[in-house]
Amino acid sequence: MQLAKRQIDVGLYTNQTEAMQAFWQTEVGLRFEEMVPLGQAVRQYRYDMNGSVLKLNSVRDPMPEAKPSGYRELWIASTEDLEPRTLWDCDDNAVKLVPHGFSGVNGIALTLAVSSAAAFNNFYGRVMRLPPATKNAYRCGDSLLSFAEGAKAHPDAPLQAKGLRYFTIQVVDVDREHATLVERGATEGLAPITLGKTARISFIRDPDGNWIELSQRASLTGPLP
């Protein structure tokens, strides 16, 4: 996979915009970058976290109750914390602030609860072809993806619902990477589409149906095809 940047981004959805902004800026200490309107009454507030982007997707209309995704905890390397510290936002998303280098985290890490460790090792190792970091953990550029098998995994969660819902891999050619991953066995979530002059994106889904965005962002790769 040819990456356009070496950090993954993480997306979540909320109806509690102001409280979430206050939490991520004040309590976690992330730097606000910009707001991007996505249409359909959704606004994306973007925050820097060690080169990754937290995509806080604010939805105007109330979202129906939905089971949580497999994405369970976001770890962020912090220069202020000498010991790991876990916080929860108003939607009960867990974020762990850790010292740089803790458990191999120098930027961010995303942890998952999965129904089958074997299926996810096949997915990240054979389908995604990401380099392994430790047991049940893989590197995507400088970011870390780790998972643990457990009964609390909730397969096939919807994309637009409260909580952590997807992560984004920035690539040089989204059409090529999407086609390759689907050919290797990834489930297609959304075929590539172009969002104005900003980005061309697609979604694939992992063995439990969690959403993974592939993005070819013009600010990273140049004009879109």
What does this structure look like?
- With 225 residues, this protein is an alpha+beta fold.
- It has one domain: 2,3-Dihydroxybiphenyl 1,2-Dioxygenase, domain 1.
- The strands form two sheets. An eight-stranded mixed sheet has the order 2-3-4-1-12-15-14-13. Strands 6-7-5-8-11-10-9 form a seven-stranded mixed sheet, covered by helices on one side.
- Strand 2 and strand 3 form a beta hairpin.
- The chain is globular.
- The chain starts with 8 loop residues before the first strand and ends with a helix.
- The relative contact order is 0.19.
Question: What is the CA-atom radius of gyration, in angstroms?
Answer: 16 Å
CATH architecture verdict: Roll
Q: Are there runs of 5+ residues with pLDDT below 50, and where?
A: none
* Count of structural domains: 1
Q: What is the 3D form? A: globular
CATH class descriptor name: Alpha Beta
CATH topology: 2,3-Dihydroxybiphenyl 1,2-Dioxygenase, domain 1
- What is the strand tally? 15
End-to-end distance: 19 Å
How are helices and strands ordered from N to C?
EHEEEEEEEHEEEEHEEEH
Helix proportion of residues, in percent? 10-25%
The structure class reads alpha+beta
Largest sheet: 8 strands, mixed
So, the CATH homologous superfamily? 2,3-Dihydroxybiphenyl 1,2-Dioxygenase, domain 1
Oligomer: single chain
